[in-house]
Every structure is written in C-alpha cells, then in structure tokens.
Amino acid sequence: QVQLQESGPGLVKSSQTLSLTCTVSGDSITTTNSYWSWIRQPPGKAPEWIGASHYAGNYYYNPSLQSRTSISRDTSKNQFSLQLSAVTPEDTAVYFCAVGRFQGTLGRARDASEYAYWGQGTQVTVSS
Asked: How far apart are CA 14 and CA 92, in angstroms?
C-alpha cells in the first residue's frame, strides 16, 4: 500500500516561497503511468490541482499557478517537492500530495477527484 507524507513549514510570510516535500513509501515515483501531484484545498473551497511530477521525469502545472510553481523530484530519496513563490494569504490551504495512475491523456491527471491515494495533508497559512 502506497503511503505519502507531506512535510514543510506551516506558516509562510506573504511574498515568500512556500516549500513542501512529499515522502513516498510502498511505491516508486518512477512507476509506469504514475502522476505524483500536489493538490490544495483552501477553506470552504474545492480541491485544486497544482501540478504533477510524471513518472518519466516530466512536470505539468495548473496554468493558473504555473508562473509561480516549481515541482521537482529526488528519485534516490523517493520524494517530490513543491515550491510556490510570491505567496499571498489567498494561498492559505491544506496542501496534499497524491498519486494516480493514468495512461495517455493529461486530462484525468489534472482532476483532483481522480486521485486514489493521498497524504494526510498539511495546513499552510500565509500571513500578511
């Protein structure tokens, strides 16, 4: 059974960069057809897909956040990471890492509801 665990600061100041890491056990981030994603859920809103690390080493981003987002991975540690720059209080949310296996189109990978396995989530608050 795959397990995912988010880690990183719970409080970030406005204009700074939010950095989170997801540590994976029970599976490899290079497993064929796997998308290792970051998803967030602001208070009172639906989950929002931020972006994904593809098993083959490609990265995909939500166009609305792409200019501020960078996702990377460390295959030796079986981890992938998120950096979100120039944060504002609107970036306050519970941040999740998740994995899904999708063959072909990117469409399903962009839909947070398609992900079967999630970390427990970590609250990140951006102070003004």
From this structure: 10
The Cα 78–Cα 22 span in angstroms is 9
At 98-112, the pLDDT tens digits run 999 998 778 899 999
Q: Name residues whose C-beta falls within 8 Å of residue 38's C-beta, 6 or more positions apart in sequence.
A: 20, 22, 49, 50, 51, 52, 71, 82, 95, 96, 97, 98
Question: 128 is written with which tokens?
Answer: 């003004």
How does pLDDT run across 9-22, given as a tens digit for each residue? 999 999 999 999 99
Identify the three-state secondary structure at position 90: helix
pLDDT at 22: 98
